[in-house]
């Protein structure tokens, strides 16, 4: 949890879940990515707060880490959803995304919609919005539970896709694009979900939420946000 130092700076701990390129990933043993650079720049401009360190969790454990004070903010390409807002708060949005259907390069299976997944084997990362789309298909009887494989990290799902163990991965569009560039996979269609990423904060931590929102505005105004977008997303 956060601690206050003598200079009245509150030290905060940020949590993330690498394996979600280019937002957060490990490179030569180091945690890097758009979220890492963005949150660091935002906290530098957030009055009264200093970033002490990063902690890594599985994506599905981040909300609990936040609500139990192990971390003070989540920077993990996390979509702002009504469901999550029942347990945590979010800053203003900093990124827009949709979901992509990722298939093997050269695959004859080219799903054009979620309904096309019926009868096929589907993968996603545990605890994600991609998983909840799949859960909806299971709940409505379109997909069998046994045809869904949940993975702790998206790169493992993509490896299983390349190996032919599964037929499709449901994953955020910007991350799908990175896998298309680096692995033997293609996007067969996108599903318009209109998701927005925000930094997660505890519901009772309105001070941090406001400070991060001011920091977000500041990085947009001073060109840092545009520079980081260029750094991590320019092809
Ligand atoms: N945007 C999606 C969600 O909020 C996926 C986020 C996955 N992030 C990660 N760092 N693995 O559920």
Provide a descriptive summary of the structure in words:
With 235 residues, this protein is α/β, with parallel strands linked by helices. The chain folds into two domains: 3-94 and 198-233, D-Maltodextrin-Binding Protein, domain 2, CATH 3.40.190; 97-194, Periplasmic binding protein-like II (D-Maltodextrin-Binding Protein, domain 2, 3-Layer(aba) Sandwich), CATH 3.40.190.10. Helix content is 33%, strand content 28%. It has eight helices and 13 strands. The chain has helices at residues 34-44, 62-67, 82-85, 129-139, 154-163, 173-182, 206-221, 224-233, and strands spanning 3-4, 10-16, 25-27, 30-32, 49-56, 73-74, 89-90, 95-104, 122-125, 148-151, 168-172, 185-197, 200-201. The strands form three sheets. Strands 1, 2, 5, 6, 7 and 13 form a six-stranded mixed β-sheet that branches. A five-stranded mixed β-sheet has the order 10-9-11-8-12. α4 links the parallel β9 (122-125) and β10. The chain is globular. The model has no long low-confidence stretch (mean pLDDT 97). Bound molecules: arginine. The site of arginine has 14 residues, from loops. Residues 17, 19-20, 24, 59, 76-79, 125, 128-129, 172, 195 line the site of arginine (ARG).
